[in-house]
Amino acid sequence: MTFHFRYRYGFLPAFPRLEGTLRKHHLFPQANEFREWFRAHGINVHDWTMVIPARAHQRIHGGDGRGGPWNEAWREFMRANLHRRLNQEELIRKAFELTYRFDIVGPIIPYGHALVPQGPQLHAP
Questions:
Q1: Which of 27, 104, 105 has the alpha carbon at shortest distance from 67?
Q2: Neighbouring C-beta atoms of residue 88, cutoff 10 Å
Q3: What 3-state class would DSSP assign to 34?
Q4: Residue-by-residue DSSP string for 5-27
Q5: Helices 32-40 and 68-80 meet at what angle, rounded to 10?
Q6: Are the beta carbons of 1 and 97 closer than 8 angstroms?
Q7: Span 34-62, pLDDT tens digits
Q8: 83/70 Cα distance (integer angstroms)
Q9: 67 vs 89: CA distance, rounded Å
Q10: pLDDT by residue (tens digit) across 62-113?
């Protein structure tokens, strides 16, 4: 999926205001059941975290002790593709598909980096 923001015509992308306590959400789950599978497909799970509000993080991970609906979506995808060699692009595409499905958005930074305020940007109300 490609988005064109026509900057020269004055159209800018709008991002939701990230308020309250923020969490770094791993787009690729870091649970042991996933870690080796992602590594075998060229993904370092700590390179792909999205900064999201804590309430959104709780909503997608739930309280079931198994990572909630986010991890379950990855389990289903992993089971369906156990015998295929996936490239990084396919996995990244799936991660972003899940961000849309679970309605989360935020800057992507590696896990070890500090949260710093971003430069000027247009926020959605």
A1: 27
A2: 11
A3: helix
A4: --GGGT---EEE---SSEEEEES
A5: 50
A6: no
A7: 999 999 999 999 999 999 999 999 999 98
A8: 22
A9: 24
A10: 877 789 999 999 999 999 998 899 999 999 999 999 999 999 988 888 998 8
Residue spans per domain, the chain: 20-112
Q: State how far the Cα of 122 lies from the Cα of 1, in Å rounded to an integer.
A: 22
Q: Give the β-pairing of 49-53 and 108-109.
A: antiparallel
Q: Distance between terminal CA atoms of the chain?
A: 25
Closest CA to 53 of 14, 118, 105: 105
- Chain centroid to CA 64: how far? 20
Tokens of 84: 């295929």
Cβ-count burial 50-84 (b if 16+ within 10 Å, e if not): bbbbeebbebbbeeeeebbbbbebbbebbeeeeee
